[in-house]
Specification:
alpha/beta; Arc Repressor Mutant, subunit A; Rossmann fold; 2 domains; seven-stranded parallel sheet; three-stranded antiparallel sheet; 10 strands; 55% helix
Length: 296
């Protein structure tokens, strides 16, 4: 066989493997659409890892239909619970596998070697087995399921990490996102995978071509109101309640939150407000809790 024939054979083999890989990805995507009727979560990723036995982070993001950054956050949860392993931490797109502990539990539940896709009946057993396996970390997901359409929520935290997580998850599930934050908008977009989301800087500095800002209470109320009217299902983060209170009377900010809550309550939207409870007195916190639900 001459070099040209060898090159052709190698190229044909590469193309065949790529076509097979793409077909498998399409089949897996269909599987995930069929078995996942609940909101996407770390459990969704675990189901996929168990079903495939191994999968790259980028492929998981493609199949589940979320950003790679979200897969990485879920991966952190599963790694902490020792439900998955990764082949290498030195590659930007690592391969994820179920741990031996998970394999053993699935084998014991299913009474076979590692699960394969052998039809609808087998698929149902895959779901049952993974549901059984994921009971260990279900408690860590309860805060997210507490956030319901039409609700206004306070998230008590010193830095707005949990608040951003809730909002990015809602956006990934199809909600239109609006983030109003005291943090640098460009850094917020990059860190949370919000490049396609409208991020507004809560600051008295005027808007520029690259950064949109808002500061006044009335402007903020109008901004959020118009966004809710335009987008039936919205996910809105208001980070900077402490800043607003520091620059206005508490009563004015309480009235603003009451107005926003009333607008949210008649929609399919959610409003999430991270708040450091140590920055307010007991009376102010009590008044806010009367108007909003809390996520700890």
């Amino acid at each position: 066989m001459d070099s040209e024939e060898e090159d052709t054979r190698v190229w044909d083999t590469i193309q065949e493997r790529e076509m097979t890989r793409r077909r498998n990805l399409d089949e897996l995507k269909g599987f995930m659409e069929e078995v996942n009727k609940t909101p996407k979560s770390a459990k969704t990723l675990l189901k996929l890892v168990v079903f495939t036995e191994s999968i790259k982070v980028s492929e998981a993001a493609q199949i589940i239909g979320v950003k790679k950054q979200r897969i990485e956050k879920w991966l952190d949860i599963l790694l902490a619970k020792k439900l998955v392993d990764i082949e290498s931490t030195h590659t930007p797109d690592p391969t994820v596998k179920p741990t031996e502990k998970v394999k053993e539990k699935v084998r014991g539940y299913y009474k076979k070697s590692m699960i394969k896709n052998e039809g609808k009946a087998e698929t149902e057993k895959v779901v049952d087995a993974v549901e059984e396996t994921t009971q260990e970390y279900e408690q860590s997901q309860q805060d997210e399921t507490m956030v319901k359409d039409g609700g206004t929520y306070l998230v008590f935290e010193e830095a707005p990490s949990r608040g951003f997580e809730i909002i990015t998850n809602r956006i990934s599930d199809g909600a239109k996102g609006l983030v109003i934050t005291r943090l640098n908008p460009k850094k917020v977009m990059k860190k949370n995978g919000l490049e396609s989301t409208r991020v507004i800087w809560l600051s008295s500095v005027g808007s520029t071509e690259s950064v949109e800002t808002v500061s006044g209470i009335q402007d903020l109320s109008i901004l959020v109101g118009k966004f809710i009217d335009k987008n039936k299902k919205s996910a809105i983060l208001l980070d900077g309640v402490e800043y607003l209170i520091a620059n206005n009377k508490f009563g004015s900010i309480l009235k603003l939150i009451q107005q926003l809550r009333d607008r949210i309550s008649t929609s399919e939207s959610v409003l999430v407000m991270p708040l450091n409870p140590h920055t307010l007195g007991d009376k102010e916190l009590s008044l806010l809790k009367l108007e909003c639900k809390t996520v700890k």
